[in-house]
Specification:
single chain, 75 residues, 56% helix, 0% strand
Length: 75
């Protein structure tokens, strides 16, 4: 069952050129859709970064040893 979105009205003073540019980049039809998509991108990027950091920390803590199988190759 999908969760219901809570919508609120907010008033911001934003750079119109940035909004229009983002609207073109995101392929959004309205300014509201542009802001929604931009927020979704920020949230998903944060989630990816958090998961990547957690995976890196698990890898480092695992104590695995990495060896250079190619040795000291000279260019």
């Amino acid at each position: 069952m999908p969760t219901e979105r809570v919508r609120v009205r907010k008033h911001f003073r934003l750079d119109a050129r940035k909004i229009k540019r983002a609207q073109r980049i995101l392929g959004a039809k309205t300014e509201t859709e542009t802001v929604e998509r931009a927020l979704d991108l920020v949230l998903s990027e944060y989630q990816r970064n958090r998961l990547t950091l957690e995976a890196n920390l698990r890898f480092v803590r695992s104590g695995i040893e990495i060896k250079d199988i190619y040795g000291n190759l000279e260019d």
